[in-house]
Amino acid sequence: DIQMTQSPSTLSASVGDRVTITCRASQSISNWLAWYQQKPGKAPKLLIYKASSLQSGVPSRFSGSGSGTEFALTISSLQPDDFATYYCQQYNNYYTFGQGTKLEIK
Amino acid sequence: EVQLVESGGGLVQPGGSLRLSCAASGFTFSNYWMNWVRQAPGKGLEWVANIKDDGSDKYYVDSVRGRFTISRDNAKNSLYLQLNSLRAEDTAVYYCARPGRLPWDAFEIWGQGTMVTVSS
Predict the structure, then answer these.
(1) Mutate to test the interface with A, among B51, B93, B101, B107 (most CBs of A within 10 A)
(2) Average pLDDT value for residue range A75-80
(3) Which end of chain B is more exposed for a tag (fewer CB within 10 A), N or C?
């Protein structure tokens, strides 16, 4: 089984900050990685697929990078709507999610 | 509008059964693999099962294999999850999710979820 490890688990930041969340796979997954945003009581929303492709309708301040085992989600300038929990997901071999990163207002 | 709507959740005793449904609209359901994903209260996301577009292949996470059964009815644009031998650790919100065009692809579309509570 492929394990996905996100860091940090919690991130405190301010509006306008640039933030990066990382995700590590236990073995190479090429670029079969997605990022999701989830707000309390809501379903997850796809942000990034294939490690760096922006899903339609997602603001360009979100970007993804990486391949193999190391990946990152960057938000270039935090907006109030971005405070949420973020999950990475590998889909190279079945599906596995990271444990999540809660992005909080500082 | 592309939409997935789950139903069928509720309170069930340990060892009991439940059948979840997911009604799809706004896209050609029979062209897509479909998935179930769950989220225990206050916890992260866990993929549960998926099914091929024609229903001929099914895959499960180890923790539910042999207890849960995924199925679909393309004529009714519906996805199902039969939950048997339920345990307390199966308590979660259950989401149906549609990937992109690849069989194993990121989940583009999610339902709103249905809550399953396993408790005596």
Answers:
(1) B107
(2) 97
(3) N
